[in-house]
Amino acid sequence: MKAVAVVPAKKELRLVDHPMPQINGGNQIKVQTLDVGICGTDREICTFVYGSPPEGDDYLVLGHESLGRVVEVGDSVTRLKIGDLVVPSVRRPCSDPNCNPCCNDKQDYCINGQFTERGIKEVHGFMTEYYVDDEKYFTRVPEDLRELAVMAEPLTIAEKGLAQAYAVQQRLPWACTEPGKPKGHGLRAVVLGAGPIGILGAMKCVIEGFDTYVYSRSKAPNPKAALVEQIGAKYFSKYDISPQELAEEVGNIDLVYEAVGGSEVAFDVLQVLGTNGIFVFTGIPAPETRLEIDSDILMRRIVLENLAIVGTVNADRQAFEDAIADLAEFKKRWPETIKGVISGRFSVDDHEELLVGKSQGIKNVIAFS
Ligand code: BGC
Ligand code: ZN
Predict the structure, then answer these.
(1) pLDDT, tens digit, for every residue of 36-66?
(2) Ligand 2 mean position to 108 CA, how many Å?
(3) Which domains does the chain have, with CATH numbers?
(4) What distances in angstroms separate CA 291 from CA 240, 263, 270, 286, 342, one per listed residue?
(5) Residue nearest to atom 4 of ligand 1 (CA)
(6) Residue 249 Cα, ligand 1 centroid: separation in angstroms?
(7) What pTM value is reported for the model?
(8) SS3 for 47?
(9) Which ligand is located closest to the Cα atom of residue 261?
(10) Which of 50, 162, 257, 278 has the most CB atoms less than 10 A away?
């Protein structure tokens, strides 16, 4: 089969001939790849800062954002059947019997770093024609989300992030619970960044009822700002207003959902997080920037105003279920806008341009069939 892979030892990105996987074990399914999303992580793996092949292989097949169709099922598969559309999760548990998270299907909280991740860490990814995995790692997708469901995985980052925020806000018993109202009703969210993680996160904040603001780099007007306005959120460029001015514009910032990756903007905005606010970090910067910050002032505010700072990585099964449900909601509310988040569908032959060329558009997808 054709597969897009990196060979870290040679610092190469290439098309490889990858063996057709076989089901071995009753609870596995075999999936034919339809779409694979390209993300910042894939592009970083192509700069060889991380990304490791499985033991015994010199290459790693890329791709962790996939939509596929079930073509074969093992004897003990119960939830899925041939023909179903499915999205796979990314992370697989470690084998340590003392790792509580991994033993409880919560490998996103693995305690020892020995987890693996498809297309990222020690297991091949989905940028190939077929793949096999255990049924439990898949979420079924309704047929009418065929064109959108490749965005499920990046949306799970926001799903888990908001689940964390709500868990923290249980500390305010009246928050998130007004009957008949979505959980963010009456609250204000700032999303940092207008890449796919930011835009999907902003959509999630809007349907959750938050008054939503996106703070990003490019000056408006630009296509991402237009998309943000279409969903009823407000867009501000960091070149037009400072974080202080942003806070004046917004009012008390109850939630920041960081999706810029860089620490500079993130820490600037952390300093204007509102009273009792929650800051959710999702970016994984390369260790380059060192900042000078007003650390005493920030620490005082964290204490005196009950600020909560939460990091979140990867996602669990529930986050995938929620992402599929929310994609359906996005489609209902903003059918054209959500389609527009996918900036292009390309052939596997375009992989080089997509992975190491100039970064363009929002979410680019390789269509395999
Ligand atoms: C993926 C996550 C993964 C993380 C760290 C992200 O791009 O969406 O699933 O856990 O990279 O490897
Ligand atoms: Zn990704």
Answers:
(1) 999 999 999 999 999 999 999 999 999 999 9
(2) 14
(3) 2-141+334-367 (3.90.180.10), 154-311 (3.40.50.720)
(4) 22, 8, 13, 14, 34
(5) 314
(6) 33
(7) 0.97
(8) coil
(9) 1
(10) 257
